[in-house]
């Protein structure tokens, strides 16, 4: 979990959380006069103390969803505190990042989920190859059951 604190005029540039990058807000939606200028494009969510906002930034096949571009508008008055918790679809560690790039014969051949044999048996390795088998950038959840190691 990370805690962010914004003072007046401080903001967080539009970005994706699946990789750190700055980009322009593309979508256009309704304007709310009480929001700062930056909230006139895209969806805008007003801060309510104690509320949580859940954002999905991957599609069901674990590919990045570009509609998840988001940021934090300038604080107009007072201050803003926010606690951010990232929930990863699979184990995320330097070890796994290295593993995904390593030759498959060098690393332990395992499944990350008990359901993998069942999912593989019903064709999920072919239907959801990114999530199931992985890519050079994403460590597949069912590498063993998909027979890619
Ligand atoms: O402060 C916010 O409202 C957004 C924070 C955020 O997007 C992040 O921590 O990744
Ligand atoms: Fe973010």
Overall average residue pLDDT: 76
Widest beta sheet: strand line-up: 1-4
What is the radius of gyration? Answer: 19 Å
Number-wise, the strands total: 4
Major sheet details:
2 strands, antiparallel
Query: What proportion of the residues is helical, as a percent range?
Result: 10-25%
Bound molecules: 2-oxoglutaric acid, fe (ii) ion
State the domain count: 2
Number of helices: 4
Poorly predicted sequence stretches spanning 5 or more consecutive residues: 20-34, 93-105
Beta-strand content bin: 5-15%
Give the N-terminus to C-terminus distance in angstroms. Answer: 33 Å
What is the H-and-E element order? EEEEHHHH
Shape: elongated
Structural class: little secondary structure
Give a short synopsis of this structure.
The protein is mostly loops. The chain has helices at 94-101, 116-121, 124-127, 129-132, and strands at residues 2-6, 12-15, 70-72, 80-84. 15% of the residues lie in helices and 11% in strands.
Question: What does this protein structure show overall?
Answer:
By secondary structure, the chain is low in regular secondary structure. It folds into 2 domains: 1-87, no CATH class; 104-149, no CATH class. The protein contains 4 helices and 4 strands; from the N terminus they run ββββαααα. It has helices at 94-101, 116-121, 124-127, 129-132, and strands at 2-6, 12-15, 70-72, 80-84. The strands form 2 sheets. Strands 1-4 form a two-stranded antiparallel ribbon. The protein has a two-stranded antiparallel ribbon with strand order 2-3. The longest helix is centred in the middle third of the chain and has 8 residues, at 94-101. 2-oxoglutaric acid is lined by residues 4, 12, 17, 70, 72, 82, 84.
